[in-house]
Amino acid sequence: MFEAYWRANGDSCTTVILGWEQMSYFASRKHFLWFVEQELENEIRQLHSLVGNAVTDGRFIVVGTGSTQLFQAALYAVSPRDGAQPASVVSAVPYYSSYPVLTDYLKSGIHKWAGDAANFHPADSSSSSSSYIELVTSPNNPDGSMKHAVVQGSGPVIYDLAYYWPHYTPITAAAEHDMMLFTVSKCTGHAGSRIGWAIVKDAQVAQNMAKFIELNTIGVSHDSQLRAAQILKSISGRLFHFGYSEMSRRWDLLQQAVKVSDRFSLPEFSPAFCAFFGQVTSPHPAFAWLQCNRDSDCKEVLKLGGVLSRSGVQFGVGPDYVRISMLDREGNFETFIARLSDMAAASLAST
Ligand code: PMP
């Protein structure tokens, strides 16, 4: 979706790296975040102060190979080290489908996926030494809702704020959680650069995350960090105005397509005052979280109509839900809307 913006405004992002530049593993030999490029860190702090979506003062910026790597680094950083039970990793349904897989794919001894945070009660845990880590995605992937921690306990909470940008949701306050994850993927659309960042309050947690990144990839591509810095530097308010009006147009089309019949439904969102735009704005999530009201296997129904989606089952709920991206290229988005309209109208004809 952002490609059109960068085609028109991307000239100032050209990054030139000569053959002899950026050859070292190190950006700095003095700091424990030795792989973080200062230029990128500065741009990240400036961007948050422009947008007002997160507090960075007095906090560490840990750069990672996408927020996917930082998510794993964060789990590693706050999991117990005493060899007792692995920490239970929980997130309220519907949760981002990658969390269970990323948590368990190495069958770690320090953490394990434990499902829906709403059903998790720390006191019920079989061992008194067992602990938990809660994941909160806000706005949420897949359903776009604003989320808060739900577990009644004092365990660490990792806030994945990938979508907390003015094009997706009103910026109501600067977030100031202990651990917050962001990514250029959803902010500017440059998912291929694989750059994300964590804003971390506690020095030991930041240091543990840096250790994970050292062990996992010996730092983060310096070429990518410089390109990301250049891209962030060129962001003026204009990117968010473009993103907001584009998302607004796309959501209008989606809502029109869905409302011709009662076959599908979408979540409802309330407008709020956005401190960045200085006016009331409506949420426009990056995904359509569509419910099939009459068919039990929504993914299959959409597939028959020529639309690929991800089943609600992968997000911890039923197969009557699916998630569809709202950020595809314009042509694909138009095809999606045309096919969805046909499916909604076909249901009308059959009733
Ligand atoms: N967190 C959430 C909630 C996401 O939706 C995504 C991308 N789908 C990611 C993290 C991954 O972002 P990145 O490209 O930075 O690894």
From TrEMBL:
Keywords annotated in UniProt: Pyridoxal phosphate
Protein name: Alliinase C-terminal domain-containing protein
Domain Alliinase C-terminal positions: 1-343
GO biological process, one term: amino acid metabolic process
GO molecular function: carbon-sulfur lyase activity; transaminase activity
Gene3D superfamilies to which the protein is assigned, alphabetical: Aspartate Aminotransferase, domain 1, Type I PLP-dependent aspartate aminotransferase-like (Major domain)
Domain of life: Eukaryota
Pfam families recorded: Alliinase_C
InterPro entries found in the cross-reference section: Alliinase_C, Ethylene_sulfur-biosynth, PyrdxlP-dep_Trfase, PyrdxlP-dep_Trfase_major, PyrdxlP-dep_Trfase_small
Assigned protein family: Belongs to the alliinase family.
Organism: Selaginella moellendorffii
